[in-house]
Amino acid sequence: MAVRVQREDFDLGAEVAALTSGRLEIGAVVTFSGLVRDTGGLVAMELEHYPGMAETALAALEAEAVARWELQASLVIHRFGRLEPGERIMMVATASRHRQAAFEAAEFLMDYLKSRAPFWKKEAGPDGDRWVDARDGDEAALARWK
């Protein structure tokens, strides 16, 4: 079980290989990788966080997923700094004996990361910079996990 907050990019395949290496009890791995998308003229997205606080919050979230589902392994990576459209912004990987736990845990982690992770996003575009607010749909997705 691991959480990393980092500026540098990551290799999704290498991360999954490391997560599952020698783990013969794992029968399912679910991964999600988020990319910065161009929403119409986006030049870059700047992600800010408070070091220490972000890692603590993500570790608590991951611990909750482990408590709810029988996971053999999990990994959450979230990047910060300036990212351009097409770059990886984050990933979640969950591994379990059976697929249902891996899928549900990954969805839970993603729903909470999208709306509760302590990152602040600022989009740079042709008309200047603007802070990104949480979307109503992201908040609504959390209701199923209460």
- Our count of helices gives 4
Would you report the number of β strands?
Answer: 8
Strand content: 25-35%
Task: State the distance separating the first and last CA atoms.
Answer: 23 Å
Please give the share of residues in helix: 25-40%
Let me know the average pLDDT: 93
User: Could you say how many structural domains there are in total?
Assistant: 1
Computed CA radius of gyration, to the nearest angstrom: 16 Å
> Which CATH C-level class is it?
Alpha Beta
Describe this structure in words.
The protein has 146 residues and is α+β, with helices and mostly antiparallel strands. The chain has a single domain (2-145), classed as Molybdopterin biosynthesis MoaE subunit (Aldehyde Oxidoreductase, domain 3), CATH 3.90.1170. Helix content is 34%, strand content 35%. The protein has helices at residues 12-20, 53-68, 99-116, 136-141, and strands at residues 2-6, 28-35, 44-49, 71-79, 81-83, 88-96, 119-125, 128-131. Strands 1-4-6-2 form a 4-stranded mixed beta sheet, with helices on both faces. β7 and β8 form a beta hairpin. α2 (53-68) runs antiparallel to α3 (99-116). It is globular.
Short description:
The chain has 146 residues and is α+β, with helices and mostly antiparallel strands. It has four helices and eight strands. α2 packs antiparallel against α3 (99-116).
